[in-house]
Fold Putative 2-hydroxy-3-keto-5-methylthiopentenyl-1-phosphate phosphatase.
Amino acid sequence: MSTSTLPAMKTNPKFVFFTDFDGTITQSDSNDYLTDTLGMGTELRKKGNQDVLFDRKSFRQSFGEMMHSVSETTPYDKCIDILLKNIKLDVGFRDFLEWSTAQNVPVVVLSSGMEPIIRALLVHLIGPLANDIQIVSNTVAPRDGKSINEVGGWEIVFHDESHFGHDKSREIRPYKALPQEERPTMFYAGDGVSDLSAAKETDLLFAKKGHDLVNYCVRENVPFEVFEDWSSILSTVQSIVAGKATVQEVVARGLEEVKSGNA
């Protein structure tokens, strides 16, 4: 695949930043919020996450059950309205996006959520800056002959046939396969079980402190840099782009944090 067919390469960047959306760009996960407050509840949701982490259930199955439980109680437009009132932007993301836009570092959202919700939240939280962000995600469709804006009238439509529902690695690998002289340095930021498919695919992984992705990376020996919010991501990426630090140095620092128990 050539650079001309990869959306993030249209400006010939030397760096591309892939990121999860829920719980990464936002302070809390919109799908978890819907599930906890309108669907099956927190206990069953967390059990499903653990089932995914320990390979007892696919993410596709677990997440599908979560969204079905919400659809059974709440129309889709009502879900969006509720989220707009309750989901907040993570600290430092706006500053990161403004810097990355100015520095030709494209940001690509790879999400296991649904595009209409993600787009509505981004426009609400950051305004016109949202137009610069490519979103690759699942979507939504009507079910049982109903409108999506009726109770029981919507269902998630997964991006692909994989057991993830959206295998994020498939979006990243064409960039990895570019000729060395064209291939950008790639970053990924995530927090949870939806990010397992992407965790090993980029040059540098940022994993949110205290969340499931950190536990997975430690268990599977996947190198990562821990972050608490986007201010630390911005600082690290700025250093790499400016040539003041290398990806290898940051990875080594991340490994030391894991060994010292600070991850």
In short: Residues 3-259 form a domain with the Rossmann fold fold (CATH 3.40.50.1000). The chain has one domain: 3-259.
